[in-house]
Every structure is written in C-alpha cells, then in structure tokens.
Amino acid sequence: MAPLVDAFGRWPHTSIELRTRMDKPIDNLQPWELSRFEWDQLANITKYERAGAVRVGDACPVYNCHGLTFGNRRTSVSDDPNLIALILDDDGFTSVLEDSVRTGDIILYYDAAGSIEHSGIVLSKGPDPLDRPWIWSKWGKGYAMTHYVAVCPFVASHVRYYRLTKWKPEEVWKPNS
C-alpha cells in the first residue's frame, strides 16, 4: 500500500530493509522529490555532457550514487565512510589497481581529507586512446550518468577501485562479527 501524502501533497520519505552479506543493516533513505534548488542544479550538467558524459534516463531522487553502487538503484545509501567500509568488507570487495580494472568493478572518489565523495560502477576500460575507465554513476539525487573517471562534478584527490572477489562463506564470514 502506498504511503499517504502529507498536508502539502508530498510523499513522505521511506526506507527499505537493506543489509550487507554479513547481515548488518545499511542506513538508507528514499526521498521522493527534488527541491527547487536541486531541480535548478540539474541544468549544470551540460558542461560535463560537452566533455563526453552521457545522461542515462530522467532525474530520480529516490537513489544516490551509493544507492546505485550498493543498493541496486532502490534507495539512497548513507555516505558515512564507516558504513561504506563495512559494506566493502562484509560484501567481499578487495582493492584493485586501475591498470587491472574491468567491467563490474566499483570506483570510490575520495577528497583530500580521505572522505568518500562519490561512487560508481566501471562499465569498461574506455574506448579512448588513454584507456580511461568509463563509469556509470548517479549525480546526487539528479541524473544517472555514464562518463570518464574525471568528467564529473565530484572533485576527487584520488580514486580507488574495488572488485567483488570474496563470495564464499569461508572467505567473508568472520566469527563474532
């Protein structure tokens, strides 16, 4: 059953049951609308489109970049670095070098202080001569985009790539965790 709208006709924010493979909760929120400010910000992507980024579908406020990367586009996942580290660990991701990146790996964008600014999924090693990875990511509550690593509004001092490598229970299960 759909939730009731509030006095202003807005849908209330919701959340879903989302857990790591080790059955730990993943904090999330499903916002159902964009503010006027957020709508205005959507126009700022044209400079990235001129640089090669491609818009994928309509704007959708329900999920963010971490929701695309870790929540299958169903919800916005908190950007708490401890939560992202927990997901990486519990779900069996290991760090990989850019030289060995392949389709399906994930990318995390870090600022100078080491905070995670953005995430996405590697679609391919680029068709361009520089062989840069081509990324699928969600820009805030706005558009999902495909783009080269550096063609996005998130300023990163460095990026790291991760691959799902541990999936057997004995590889990921930690007693008393």
Describe the secondary structure blueprint for this structure.
Layout: E1 28-29, H1 36-41, H2 46-50, E2 54-56, H3 65-71, E3 76-77, H4 81-91, E4 93-96, E5 106-110, E6 116-125, E7 133-138, E8 144-148, E9 158-164, H5 169-172
Antiparallel strand pairs: 1-3, 2-8, 4-9, 5-6, 5-9, 6-7, 7-8
CATH architecture: Alpha-Beta Complex
Please work out how many helical segments DSSP would assign: 5
According to CATH, what is the class?
A: Alpha Beta
Structural class: alpha+beta
Structural account:
There is one protein chain. The protein has helices at residues 36-41, 46-50, 65-71, 81-91, 169-172; strands at residues 28-29, 54-56, 76-77, 93-96, 106-110, 116-125, 133-138, 144-148, 158-164. With 177 residues, the chain is of the alpha+beta class. It has a single domain, classed as Alpha-Beta Complex (endopeptidase fold (from Nostoc punctiforme)). A seven-stranded antiparallel beta sheet has the order 2-8-7-6-5-9-4. A two-stranded antiparallel sheet has the order 1-3. Strand 7 and strand 8 form a beta hairpin. The radius of gyration is 17 Å and the shape is flat. The mean pLDDT is 88.
Q: Key terms for this structure?
A:
177 residues, alpha+beta, endopeptidase fold (from Nostoc punctiforme), seven-stranded antiparallel β-sheet, two-stranded antiparallel sheet, 25% strand, flat
Quick description:
The protein is an alpha+beta fold. The chain is built from five helices and nine strands, in the order E-H-H-E-H-E-H-E-E-E-E-E-E-H.
